[in-house]
TrEMBL record:
The species this protein was found in: Tetranychus urticae
UniProt cross-references to SUPFAM superfamilies, sorted A to Z: alpha/beta-Hydrolases
Record GO terms (molecular function): O-acyltransferase activity
Name of the molecule in the record: Group XV phospholipase A2
UniProt gene name: 107361863
BP-aspect Gene Ontology terms: lipid metabolic process
Domain of life from the UniProt record: Eukaryota
Pfam families for this protein: LCAT
């Protein structure tokens, strides 16, 4: 991409900053040779967190239940091919010869260039068809379905900052799992909600059936965050005899069963998905077009109608006045998308399979957003925190407990103190729990 000299300088400086953040911190632990710890950087922020290394003796494949990993919001790689009628800046690429990495490619997040990326990522809503489409001239696909590659790291260059299921897969492979065979990945276009994921669900079902036929064993589904209600929607739409035949159990990690207050902030003043070099207001332009974000709005099954979760000088927002909220942020399409997705898993019907519900706790989590003393909506709010895992509120994380009295299959529950929304994917105690489940007869 050609850039004018002043933009080149800004991009070089920003790229160097990203390099220093991503690589230098990662190598510190290696240089110091800290024993029995390893450094990992996740999407929850560009900083290292140490956790004990886990190593298990390999087991025979006969002792292992096959697994499928379903990621959450931002947990799948996306690729794009473009032939655009116009671009937002003269230096933005207008046509590409082939598909290129769209999410996540850190080089696209530098100042000015990020505007090109934002325009490629956005969706366009049609309130007649009630569906979304890509930005004009942009074709987006999800690579690596069936393998774990595109859910281990969301940046194909596999820089540590983009680690997702990588630590879990690493341990499982050491135990005897085989990528693309006994441990599978189910990436999807995380911009969309279940009502627009028919192709994914067809692939997902076929993959489960093929694996069962090949291996002769029921599968363990492991979901994270938004991937859990997305998996629930799938299970709610399968016959019980199909589930009994193919599914061993569901392991939910930080499931956002009833939404999260954080989604309101994303619609209002943006949320950078924990990538600190990504400006919140820039990514807001995309987030406001994503049905998946509307799907994660807090529901009145978990937040009573009279509980204020956001305040401005003009409106106290509750789960009962989302129409006024979307009018306030001037996003009428957002309200229509919310109407489309609000009932997909609203009743939280039990999945009809054995459940292991795991989540972190004891981390300050957005509970109330106060925009009354800032320039609305472009400045960040004063935040009142409550219990949760740093991203999803505790009341939503515990939604799975309702199934203990609603289905005959067992529902096991465990929380992990001071384990946040992303580190649950690599926490030693969580991985040890998963190991116990997948090796049980």
């Amino acid at each position: 991409m050609w850039l004018p000299t002043n933009l080149k300088l800004n991009c070089i400086i920003s790229t160097l900053l990203i390099y220093l953040i991503v690589y230098c911190d990662c190598r510190t632990a290696n240089n110091l040779k800290i024993e029995k710890t390893e450094t990992n950087i996740g999407l929850n922020g560009l900083w290292p967190s140490r956790r004990p290394s886990i190593h298990y003796m390999p087991l025979s494949s006969a002792a292992l239940s096959p697994m499928v990993l379903i990621p959450g919001d931002g947990g799948s790689q996306l690729e794009a091919k473009i032939d655009k009628p116009d671009v937002v800046h003269y230096f933005c690429q207008k046509k590409s010869p082939d598909y290129f990495s769209l999410w996540l490619n850190l080089a696209d997040l530098v100042p000015f260039v990020v505007d090109c990326w934002v325009d490629n990522m956005r969706l366009v809503y049609d309130n007649v068809t009630r569906k979304t489409s890509n930005s004009p001239g942009v074709d987006i696909r999800v690579p690596g379905f069936g393998n774990t590659t595109s859910v281990e790291y969301v940046d194909p260059s596999q820089v540590s900052v983009s680690g997702y299921y990588n630590q879990l897969v690493k341990v499982m492979v050491e135990m005897g799992y085989s990528r693309g065979n006994t441990i599978l990945g189910a990436p999807y276009d995380f911009r969309k909600a279940p009502n627009e994921m028919e192709d994914f669900y067809n692939q997902f079902k076929t993959m489960i059936e093929s694996s069962y036929t090949k291996l002769g064993k029921k599968l363990v589904l492991v979901c994270h965050s938004m991937g859990c209600p997305i998996t629930l929607y799938f299970l709610n739409n399968q016959k019980q005899d199909w589930k009994d035949r193919h599914i061993r159990c569901l392991i939910s990690l930080a499931g956002a069963w009833g939404g999260a207050v954080k989604s309101l902030k994303a619609f209002t003043s943006g949320d950078n998905l924990g990538v600190i070099v990504l400006p919140a207001l820039k990514v807001r332009k995309d987030e406001q077009t994503f049905p998946s974000l509307a799907y994660l709005m807090p529901t009145d099954k978990f937040w009573p109608h009279d509980e204020v979760i956001m305040s401005t000088t003009e409106l106290n927002v509750t789960t009962s006045n989302y129409k006024e909220f979307f009018d306030l942020v001037q996003n009428t399409d957002g309200y229509e998308m919310w109407r489309d997705v609000r009932n997909l898993t609203y009743e939280l019907k039990p999945p009809g399979v054995e459940v292991h519900c795991l989540h972190g706790t004891g981390i300050d989590t957005m509970e109330y957003l106060d925009y009354r003393n800032v320039k609305f909506p472009d400045h960040q709010p004063k935040i009142t925190f409550g219990p949760g895992d740093g991203t999803v509120n505790e009341r939503s994380l515990k939604g799975c407990l309702r199934w203990q009295t609603q289905q005959t299959q067992p529902v096991f529950y465990k929380n992990f103190t001071k384990v946040d929304h992303m580190s649950i994917l690599a926490d030693p105690l969580v991985i040890a729990y998963i190991r116990t489940v997948v090796t049980a007869e």
